[in-house]
Amino acid sequence: MKKRTPVSAIMTKEVITLKTTDELETAERLFKKNKIRHIPVVSGEKIIGMLSYTDLLRISFADALDEEEENVDTVVYNMFSIEQVMAKNLTSVHVDTTIKEVAEILAKKEFHALPVLEGTKLVGIVTTTDLINYLIDQF
């Protein structure tokens, strides 16, 4: 296992994002269609929040629906905005942060994804799944 491998080697580079003006219904469709659990919320190229599928579950019955189901009951979603539901106090990492450092951050925190930045620009996202897959590849 290489000790100095940067997070850029395992991060997702084609990041699906949301804007605060998007609907929560749109977010749920993106989660299900792309089989993902975290979506950065951006203003231009700058990240301003992170919405997780768990955030949606807290305010709805999204988990009661079939994961493959595209039709979403939006009654609850109409009561909230993405900005109200997303996490705002984010921990992020730089594109050159090592995988080991990322693993340490995720092991100590209560979240499972980190935005990866180059300056203030969002260039990727790394999740606990990315770390597990990296570990599997080492064997």
Describe this structure in words.
By secondary structure, this protein is α+β, with helices and mostly antiparallel strands. It has one domain (7-137): CBS-domain (Roll), CATH 3.10.580.10. It has 5 helices and 5 strands; from the N terminus they run αββααβαββα. It has helices at 24-34, 53-59, 82-85, 99-108, 128-137; strands at residues 38-43, 46-52, 93-94, 113-118, 121-127. The strands form 2 sheets. The chain has a 3-stranded mixed β-sheet with strand order 3-4-5. A two-stranded antiparallel sheet has the order 1-2. A hairpin with a 2-residue loop joins strand 4 and strand 5 (121-127). The mean pLDDT is 89. Residues 11-67, 86-139 form the CBS domain. This is CBS domain-containing protein. It holds the Pfam family CBS.
Layout of strands and helices, then pairs:
Blueprint: H1 24-34, E1 38-43, E2 46-52, H2 53-59, H3 82-85, E3 93-94, H4 99-108, E4 113-118, E5 121-127, H5 128-137
Parallel strand pairs: 3-4
Antiparallel strand pairs: 1-2, 4-5
InterPro entries: CBS_dom, CBS_dom_sf, Diverse_CBS-Domain
Organism: Oceanihabitans sediminis
Domain CBS: 11-67, 86-139
Give a brief description.
This is CBS domain-containing protein. The chain is of the alpha+beta class. It has helices at residues 24-34, 53-59, 82-85, 99-108, 128-137, and strands at residues 38-43, 46-52, 93-94, 113-118, 121-127.
